[in-house]
Amino acid sequence: MPIDETTPPAPVSPYGWSKLMTEVMLRDTAAAHGLRYAVLRYFNVAGADPQGRTGQSTKDATHLIKIASQAAHGLRAGMSVFGTDYPTPDGTCLRDYIHVSDLIEAHVLALAHLMGGGESLTANCGYGEGYSVLEVIDAVKRVSGADFPVEITGRRAGDPASLVADSSRIRDLLGWTPQYQDLDAIVGHALAWEAALQKRNSRP
Ligand SMILES: O=c1ccn([C@@H]2O[C@H](COP(=O)(O)OP(=O)(O)O[C@H]3O[C@H](CO)[C@@H](O)[C@H](O)[C@H]3O)[C@@H](O)[C@H]2O)c(=O)[nH]1
């Protein structure tokens, strides 16, 4: 079931709570001081700059597409799937992976909205399409042409079974029209970035 902005937030991690607290602070500051704001609720940010200028560089990042990309490039021996007993079609968690460039465009549109005098808004940023962990790993193998070992392990604590956005609000209100709503494109850009990052990090 896609999640819309009226679904009561129910964070399961301190990080999730910190994001919700930020929303509450913005709401209260706006009420007290007339501030106008845009809350953009990111779903699973993925991919990289299509021109290869930047991408996720956090050392030891644990995100699925990054881990799978590293495995495809032989930077790690293989990877784990955290649980196959979720109430989803293939038993692995579903996520709504949004290309970082589409997310940037959402910010540009939100800023233009506010600068044009628009009301405060809270809007989901996702495509409304969920992919399972196994589907993502298949995409990484398909796009890279590389095979790597995948081990099934137990669930990781705090992983909800499904997080898929209803993004009608941002589409309707800001005219947001994603350009990269394609899992293979997202994975392709992530793979290219991971290769570039590896080259960059191995320079003396
Ligand atoms: O090696 C891995 C890595 C991830 N997963 C699974 O893949 C899915 C996606 O995981 P991940 O890429 O870590 O994203 P989320 O846990 O959905 O994290 C999102 O939500 C978190 C909590 O809001 C934020 O911290 C992250 O930045 C954001 O991407 C989850 O089911 C994980 O269990 C695996 O099976 N194996």
From TrEMBL:
Q: Which reaction does it catalyse?
A: UDP-alpha-D-glucose = UDP-alpha-D-galactose
- State which Enzyme Commission number(s) the record gives: 5.1.3.2
Keywords, A to Z, come to: Carbohydrate metabolism, Isomerase, NAD
Output the superkingdom of the source species: Bacteria
Q: What class of enzyme is it?
A: isomerase
What is the required cofactor set for this protein? NAD(+)
Q: List GO BP terms, alphabetically.
A: galactose catabolic process via UDP-galactose, Leloir pathway
A Pfam family matched by this chain, by name? Answer: Epimerase
Gene Ontology molecular function terms on file: UDP-glucose 4-epimerase activity
UniProt KW Cell wall biogenesis/degradation keyword: no
Q: Does the keyword Isomerase apply?
A: yes
Locate the NAD-dependent epimerase/dehydratase domain: which residues? 2-125
Tell me the route in metabolism or biology where this protein functions: Carbohydrate metabolism; galactose metabolism
Kindly list the residue ranges recorded as spanning the membrane.
Answer: none
- PANTHER family annotated for this entry? UDP-ARABINOSE 4-EPIMERASE 1, UDP-GLUCOSE 4-EPIMERASE
For this entry, the protein name equals UDP-glucose 4-epimerase
| Source organism of this protein record | Methylobrevis pamukkalensis
The gene name reads galE_1
